[in-house]
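Two proteins were folded this term; both appear here.
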Amino acid sequence: MFAGHFAVGLALKSRYRNVPTWALLFATQLCDGLWIILSWLDKEHFRLFFTPSGVLRLDLYDAAYSHSLFWSAFYALVVFLLFVRAEGQRHWAVPLSLAVFSHWFLDWLIVAPSLPFANFGPAVKFGAGLGEIFPLADLLLEAVIVLAGWRVYDRSISSARSRTRWGILAVLIVALLSPRLLQRLL
């Protein structure tokens, strides 16, 4: 899920208008940003594979620091504490921490039980596995999340900014479809 994370940021923007959109969008992708850095440093690992139906999947088989329940909640708490104490930006604390933690929840909806509790403690894995039900389940769910997030955002902005709102929808659609188009090319 990629565009769905951004859609949550836009939905949060509709409720918390004083928080910059860029900050909310960045917060929704914090876990993936950490995953990229940790993978590059060889601290976390992943593999790409094709399912029997020919769908390219990403398996985060070792992502305990970036995508575990404990560390996702910890990052959300750290973001909250950083901003709740920041003069002039206290009102950013709740929406940014919600955006950070929303990443884990959306990933939980899609992946099979593979999200760890933490890099310590019980070896429990989480995931509802909706993306495993049938090949297009993750695309359909993400499309619903994208459209819902955009609709909530769209209703909150003025109609005078129509080019901006349609531009944001176009970007979300490209982000939603680009992994699928890349998959077709591979």
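Next, the second protein.
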Amino acid sequence: MSKPKKTFRCGRVNLSVWENQRKVDNRTFTVESVTLTRRFINGEGEWDSSSSFGKNDIPKIQVVCQRAYEFMNASESEEEAETQ
């Protein structure tokens, strides 16, 4: 499995930025996507992940989303500057 480009954490909320290559009409380009998870200890006492969140997770989701948005936009700006 590939590794995320970057992961942001706030408490037990994690947001990972992924980079994938797409090919359309013989052109290859990069597409970024994100996954959002919450870590918790399951009934067997082991760490697990969920895509379900409680109301107290919402501020943490906002934090990691804002950080990811800034990171992804900064990456785009750097790439544009390199190609000019």
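The mean pLDDT is 92. The chain has one domain: 6-83. These notes refer to the second protein only.
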